[in-house]
Amino acid sequence: MTEQRETRRIRFIQGNEACAEGALYAGCRFFAGYPITPSSEIAEVLGEKLPRLGGRFIQMEDEIAAMAAVIGASLAGVKSLTATSGPGFSLKQENIGYACITEVPCVIVNVQRGGPSTGLPTGPAQADILQTRWGTHGDHPIIVVTPSTVAEMFTETVRAFNLSEKFRTPVVVLADEIVGHMREKLVVPATGEIEILGRAKPACDPSEYRPYDVSRGDVPPMANFGEGYRFHVTGLSHDATGFPTSDAATVHADQVRMTRKIYGRLEEIEKSEETETGDAEILLVAIGSTARSARSAVRLARERGLRAGLFRPITLWPFPDARVRDLAKKALAVVVPEMNLGQLALEVERVAHCDVPITGVHSAGGEAISPAQILAAVEKAVVR
Amino acid sequence: MGFDYMKYLREEKMPHIWCPGCGHGIVMKALIRAIDKAGLDQDRVVVVSGIGCVSRMPGYLDFNTLHTTHGRALAFATGVKMADPTLHVIAVMGDGDAVAIGGNHFIHTCRRNIGITTVVANNSIYGMTGGQRSPTTPLGDNTSTTVYGNADPPFDISALAVAAGASYVARTTTYHAQQIERLIVSGFENRGFSLIEVIGPCFVAHGRRNRARYKSNLDMYREEKETAINVTATKGKPQSELMGKVTIGVLHHAPMPEFTDEYQKVIEKATHVRTI
Amino acid sequence: MSGRYEIRLGGSGGQGLILAGVILGEAAAIHDGKNAVQTQSYGPEARGGMSKSDVIVSNEEIDYPKAYRMDLLLALTQASFSGYVKDVKPGGLVVYDTSLVRDVCEGNYRLVGIPIVETATRAIGKSMVANVVSLGAIVELTGIVSKEAVEKSLMGRAPRGTEEINRRALHAGYDLVKNAEQKTTAGNR
Q: How confident is the model at residue C157 (pLDDT cuts 50, 70, 90)?
């Protein structure tokens, strides 16, 4: 089998290919998508590999349809993926909201490019940071992971599927053009090396099944269509039975519960990486490909005797408030490099409560931010 | 003893939201009888809908039911069918749902010939949102968004499906309740995408604003009866005699390969390539 | 080699430079056991238009994935020579095609002009393999990856039936450099 092997394999592949391989490893057997640069390689690889594993691939008529098909397939019990970039991600938003309220596990990859609109189709950006959090309408929790290496395109896609099944929620893999298209060494783990999770199934008799029964925890067990449970799924606000209700107290309580199911178990969701943060006076916060430049900048700064350190959220949403606050408290200045005009910085400002000066390093023209640019900002922050 | 609808209804969800005189109940009962006649396994039927009055139907039906976003029923249904081609997938949509906001999914699902039996309840109006012009509202009609008369030409949903490559297209009206059932049953028998368009009334949101034609909802049913002509009766009739008529019956049936069957061949080919 | 070695392959879409970068990166990362990152940027055109492929090779972990102080620039168009030569680091290497790059400016780098496309067309009979000729030249010049590694990587990526022509192109690249170096040595005497 292509995705599961007895032994590890070493490959030199693109981030997007690694993402597709990660999906297969996680047990994804359905992909629906629509071509869009710079994500199309994910569709191309899965178009070739899914049928080899008895899975199915479909190129839908548009981005909206692709998101819808993925939710439909997941309800029928198949782990499902779609991949896109900014403009397509915007089109998918209504149905992402549908997946949130109906609590259907699925994974959406957004390989960010320059925007808004058609923008810079082949140029990198990180300007969907807030769109992934707040893109769909209404209050909703969502989990977003941000790989910064080819290896992480694999492992974070696997983790995205696991989180999605465990918490019955859509999970976004937020990559950028550089990480998506860059090639690096990937050690494909052997079968069983990474634990693969599936959704919790109901233990009750079908006649007693309530699809949103949260009496045993905030994540309700999920039956698949066709298994005899004959339940109802609707995007209308619903009660434990899955049927519409407009009872204010019930709807409010359910909204609170849906948020709590994610925000109440942060320790199972949060993941980050720290470089030289122990004594850091200048704290860098960066994600994705920009975090690589930031790590270089930390080394360059340390060579110059500046105590810089990098905090890299790997789970971007829920945002790691507590850790960023702790690190920012100890720092004299915070530098946030990002390929946009300041989105991640807004979150850092929110949690740091203006205790510390925050500077952004921005690039919105489709070019990576270089270590030298970040180093310059670090040096300036020290002078200040 | 008559037909036992309760076997397939979620009784506790009654009463339904449809207005007195609405045709959607007629469509729902016909669909239930058709499912029963075709002998489909209740646990293996998935009914998918979009948004609108008729899209509330799955909530009342005791199957696997999926009430989705506006216009997207066929896209969701495609995902369900692809995940498990052995499921019986049925889509129920209104006219605005199917051919306005969902028009792209509609034509592509016709073309793809994926096994989804689709019932479009066409009442020529956005009923749920208060009577706005739909893509099938006749020219000249008053609606809440066309108070000087509609200037926006309507779609012929069945003709659109035929043009888009659907393998089975049938049309009837809510007046012809028995025919709805027969057409759905033969739709089930067609392997692939089947469209059954059911023209129906919406007196509350449409008829009421066009009193010159409709004094009550009965006039709307009467119009369905009087304008309908069976497709077999149209043979040899000059076009002039068919003006203002609505052709009903099986309008088009041209069997072709079903998509998930074809995809199974892709799976076999891909598996074969690997083992070489 | 211990630190970071930066290579940029610059040219136009359709010249196969992205693939050349992939082969080079794979040779380093998989067959020579080093670390390598390959990135690219390109315009909307499948043929023509700007295209560049960066390969970073290192024995250490590679953070920043793009070339910014190049150890080696390969230029297969005038635009890529003129556009990128300023980012070559002092003492770096600039390899260019003598028929496609006419306006050559001297600087604090070593210039190596060789007839890459002409060799591909005349000696191999396919201008398409100019990327592989370039690869051979780079490997011969720098030894950044071993010849065994680049050949393994090339054979793994070459479409079936084109292995031989690709091998010949690679060797033609080696030879181009050997000959050019002999000439340089002779000239110095």
A: very high
Q: How confident is the model at residue A1 (pLDDT cuts 50, 70, 90)?
A: very low
Q: Which residues of A touch C83 (CB under 8 A)?
A: none
Q: Would you tell me the crossing angle of helices C163-188 and C147-157 to the nearest 10 degrees? A: 150
Separation of alpha carbons A49 and A55, rounded Å = 8
CA gap A167, A263 in Å, rounded: 11
Report d(CA B37, CA B29) in Å as an integer. Answer: 12
Please write the tens of the pLDDT for every residue from A113-167: 999 999 999 999 999 999 999 999 999 999 999 999 999 999 999 999 999 999 9
Which residues in chain B come in under a pLDDT of 70?
Answer: 1, 274-276
Is C117 an interface residue toward A (CB < 8 Å)? no
Fold classified for B5-275: Rossmann fold (3.40.50)
How close C112 comes to chain A (CA, Å)? Answer: 28
**Which residues of chain A neighbour B10 with C-beta distances below 8 Å?**
232
Chain B within 8 Å of A240 (Cβ-Cβ)? Answer: no
For chain B, give every domain's residue range.
5-275
Cβ-based interface (< 8 Å): residues of B facing A: 10, 13, 42-44, 46, 48, 58-59, 62-69, 72, 75-84, 86-87, 104-105, 107-108, 260, 263, 266-267, 269-271, 273-274
Cβ pairs bridging A and B (under 8 Å)? 143
Residue B230 forms beta bridges with which residues? Answer: B248
CA gap B159, B157 in Å, rounded: 6
What is the average pLDDT across A162-188? 97
Q: Flag whether residue C37 sits within 8 Å of chain A, measured between CB atoms.
A: yes
CB < 8 Å to B87, chain A? 76, 225-226
Cβ–Cβ gap A181/C66 under 8 Å: no
* Domains of chain A with CATH codes: 9-188 (3.40.50.970), 272-383 (3.40.50.920)
Taking only the tens place, the pLDDT of each residue in B212-238 is 999 999 999 999 999 999 999 999 999
In sequence order, what are the beta bridge partners of B125?
B133
What residues does each domain of chain C span? 5-188
Residue with tokens 């100890």: A330
Write the DSSP assignment of C8-59 as a string of letters: EEEEETTS-HHHHHHHHHHIIIIIS--EEEEEEEE-S-SSSSEEEEEEEEES
Write down the CATH number for the domain with range C5-188: 3.40.920.10
